[in-house]
Amino acid sequence: MKIASWNVNSLNVRLPHLQRWLQEAAPDVVGLQETKLEDHRFPDAALAELGYRSVFHGQKTYNGVAILARQAPQAVQIGIPGFADTQARAIAATVGELRIVDLYVVNGQDVGSEKYAYKLRWLDAVHDWLADELKTYPNLVVLGDFNIAPDDRDVHDPQLWNADHILTSSAERAALQRLLALGLHDGLRLHTQEGGLFSWWDYRQAAFRRNLGLRIDLTLVSDALRPHVQAAGIDTTPRSWERASDHAPAFVVLD
DNA sequence: ATGGTCGCTGGGCGA
Predict the structure, then answer these.
(1) Closest residue (CA to C1') to nucleotide B9 in the complex
(2) Over chain A, what HEC string results?
(3) What is the pLDDT of residues A123-180, one digit of tens each?
(4) Is A247 among the catalytic positions?
(5) Protein-to-nucleotide distance from the CA of A231 to the C1' of B11, whole angstroms
(6) Catalytic residue check, A104
(7) Which of A17, A57, A156, A247 is catalytic?
């Protein structure tokens, strides 16, 4: 069971990449972020041709999340329950024996900004939601673009990406640790302690070629699923394709 | 990183 997370940065532009990657990597479940598509424009028919059922929550121009699965997703939750949000950033569904939560965490722009405050509020709401989800669904996978690099192994330059910088600030990392403390585990870190494994590289400065990246796309598994993790990683191949997303897919394999 | 790139949109914002 291969479960992946991929910020496609416009599914309209990246549909050919997604189709190619689904065929080459053959994931069973995929959480997408930044689809940037209203629901009536979601390419569910094209994805069904490849054997994937889709559920999605999108909007015009920004944000947008979706879950693709070979089995039909059930009990779909759109948005964070009880948290009024004009931005389409969260979707959850049951796929077979697994509960999948797909998140496009707020970027936050700059530490101290209004968007940063929204990011921290948003992560608080996610915390309470996941606490409830775990009670109902012990077999929980939480994946997405977290817009937080968990620790210094996950950034190319810890001097730059420091405790006062967006995506690596103390409060953001503390918010992530608070999610993990619910009984969730960073899938990649169950598999390797290696640093320099990145999932996002800025379009500018030839960052991908120079491997100036961050690991901000995560696949978290619950306590109950932890013993079933067989592998985890980041597939950097699609990041090298022509007109690539700035993110690569992160994945975890469960037995 | 005071931004050199993208995507969406139609000038400037968000990342």
Answers:
(1) A61
(2) CEEEEEECCCHHHHHHHHHHHHHHHCCCEEEEECCCCCHHHCCHHHHHCCCCEEEEECCCCCCCEEEEECCCCEEEEECCCCCCCCCCCEEEEEECCEEEEEEECCCCCCCCCHHHHHHHHHHHHHHHHHHHHHHHCCCEEEEEECCCCCCHHHECCCCCCCCCCCCCCHHHHHHHHHHHCCCEEEHHHHHCCCCCCCCEECCHHHCCCCCCEECCEEEEEECCCHHHEEEEEECCHHHHCCCCCCECCEEEEEC
(3) 999 999 999 999 999 999 999 999 999 999 999 999 999 999 999 999 999 999 999 9
(4) yes
(5) 46
(6) yes
(7) A247
Which amino acid belongs to residue A116? Y
Exposure of A165 by Cβ count < 10 A (0-12 exposed, 13-18 middle, 19+ buried)? middle
Asked whether A90 and A102 are in contact (CB, 8 A), the reply is yes
The answer to whether residue A52 is catalytic is: no
Question: Would you say the pTM of this structure is higher than 0.85?
Answer: yes
Q: What is the mean pLDDT of residues A96-113?
A: 98
**Domain boundaries of chain A, sorted by first residue:** 2-254
Each residue's pLDDT tens digit, A10-41: 999 999 999 999 999 999 999 999 999 999 99
Q: How many CB atoms are located within 10 Å of the residue A40 CB?
A: 6
Domain spanning A2-254: CATH 3.40.50.410 = no
Between β-strands A98-104 and A140-145, what pairing exists: parallel, antiparallel or unpaired?
Answer: parallel
Bases of chain B with protein Cβ within 7 A:
1, 3-9, 14-15
